[in-house]
Amino acid sequence: MIKKCLFPAAGYGTRFLPATKAMPKEMLPVVNKPLIQYGVEEALDAGLTEISIVTGRGKRALEDHFDISYELENQIKGTDKEKYLVGIRRLLSECSFSYTRQTEMKGLGHAILTGRPLIGDEPFAVVLADDLCVNLDGDGVLTQMVKLYNQYRCTIIAIQEVDPAETNKYGVIAGEMIGDDLYRVRNMVEKPAPEDAPSNLAIIGRYILTPDIFDLIKQTEPGKGGEIQITDALMKQAQNGCVIAYKFKGQRFDCGGAEGYIEATNFCFENFYKTGKAY
Ligand code: UTP
């Protein structure tokens, strides 16, 4: 059973400056909830109750958000405003939260390796909270992936088809189809130019990783941009054993940039806020 979910949240969020100068990108509100709360809710819905967050300097708001504010609780006790806190109270009562700091921002692979002491030697999920994933028609994306993990017992990465002109924003995979929306990964390239991309199947911010990934990251040299890329370690894992890419059911919004963030805001306003499902 997978119980742990790691949230790498130490990045600088430069695409969202100046908003992210003194505030973590993961705390940007989509309508009335910060991005990371959507991610933790998705994790809890998938049965993942041990939440580990990799933070960095200037990210203390994350820890405060997943804690009780006694003054606030006292202030709104017995008023109709209590309904606003129902969702976050559920997370606090059903999940545990632990934190570690990444002291140098050396990339996503390095951030995941920084989380190793919180994860230990067991399979775990990774959520990049700035990718907001929703599925109005059934299981959340992590739930879909946990089910697949229980079947295949190997690393599962979420993919989606992207505009071929935009492959340079993603890790891109190639592989053989082994089932509906499922591929066994044979090749993986980080941010390829469209003419070099092996497909238009792009990795997005949801992973289930087996713990051998940690040693593979350790052996990974800095790649594109001087960062330790998770894609390089995943490529080794695919060569050694098995990595499955899954074209998930649902929608994903890239909230790390203005366009996706606005789309997510409109979507959540229509589908959650206006329908009373936002708390
Ligand atoms: P991104 O590249 O999307 O995030 O990393 P970023 O660096 O914060 O944003 P930009 O590109 O400058 O706007 C993907 C995820 O990995 C985390 C980020 O917080 C984000 O959730 N990350 C990235 C780390 O935790 N540490 C790092 O060193 C790099």
From TrEMBL:
Q: What class of enzyme is it?
A: transferase
Kindly list the GO molecular function terms attached to this UniProt entry. UTP:glucose-1-phosphate uridylyltransferase activity
Report the source organism: Pseudomonas psychrophila
Q: What does this protein do?
A: May play a role in stationary phase survival.
Can you state which reaction this protein catalyses? alpha-D-glucose 1-phosphate + UTP + H(+) = UDP-alpha-D-glucose + diphosphate
| Keyword Transferase on entry | yes
| Keyword terms of this UniProt record | Nucleotidyltransferase, Transferase
Domain of life assignment: Bacteria
Pfam families named in the record:
NTP_transferase (PF00483)
List the EC numbers from the record. 2.7.7.9
Q: Which first-to-last residue range defines the signal peptide?
A: none
Recall the taxonomic lineage recorded for the source organism. Answer: Bacteria, Pseudomonadati, Pseudomonadota, Gammaproteobacteria, Pseudomonadales
What this protein is called in its record is UTP--glucose-1-phosphate uridylyltransferase
> Which Gene3D superfamilies does the UniProt entry name for this protein?
Spore Coat Polysaccharide Biosynthesis Protein SpsA, Chain A
The Swiss-Prot or TrEMBL record describes its family as follows: Belongs to the UDPGP type 2 family.
One of the GO BP terms on file = UDP-alpha-D-glucose metabolic process
